[in-house]
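[Discussion] Sanity-checking designs against the backbone

I'm trying to build intuition for which residues belong where. Below is a structure token string of 146 positions. I'd appreciate it if someone posts a full sequence so I can compare it with mine line by line.
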């Protein structure tokens, strides 16, 4: 087991992750992947003009915005998967989500922003939780394999 990961403090056996990876980190990675998937779905639906009021005319700008959101969603999916596998992508995920949400709030309705916010806030908090921080610190301090 990795030093600094205490089973009583939220560590779990490896199930698709690394040995001793804290539950907080596993949950954060799952939340990030859900958020990335939602971004992709909203982007695809938005690009094809499916709105709450029914089909709309998809102009060039709508398609470009939809593609940018889809690319951002795919990036969050990839970074969330790397977080699950032990890469410290926490800063990239946090920065990308803040940029996207500010952009999203400026472009898209507040309702969609509020709908995804309960997934992002816990993901950010859990990935920086004490057990997650100790686990990444232990990974960085471990001597390289020969």
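Best answer:
Here's mine. Compare freely.
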């Amino acid at each position: 087991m990795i030093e600094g990961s205490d089973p009583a403090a939220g560590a779990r056996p490896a199930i698709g992750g690394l040995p001793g990876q804290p539950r907080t980190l596993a949950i954060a990675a799952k939340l990030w992947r859900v958020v990335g998937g939602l971004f992709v779905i909203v982007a695809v639906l938005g690009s094809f003009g499916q709105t709450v009021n029914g089909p709309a005319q998809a102009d060039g700008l709508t398609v470009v915005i939809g593609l940018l959101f889809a690319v951002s969603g795919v990036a969050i999916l990839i970074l969330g998967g790397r977080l699950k596998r032990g890469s410290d992508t926490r800063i990239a995920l946090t920065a990308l989500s803040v940029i996207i949400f500010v952009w999203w709030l400026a472009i898209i309705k507040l309702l969609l922003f509020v709908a995804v916010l309960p997934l992002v806030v816990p993901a950010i908090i859990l990935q920086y939780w004490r057990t997650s921080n100790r686990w990444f610190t232990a990974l960085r301090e471990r001597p390289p394999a020969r």
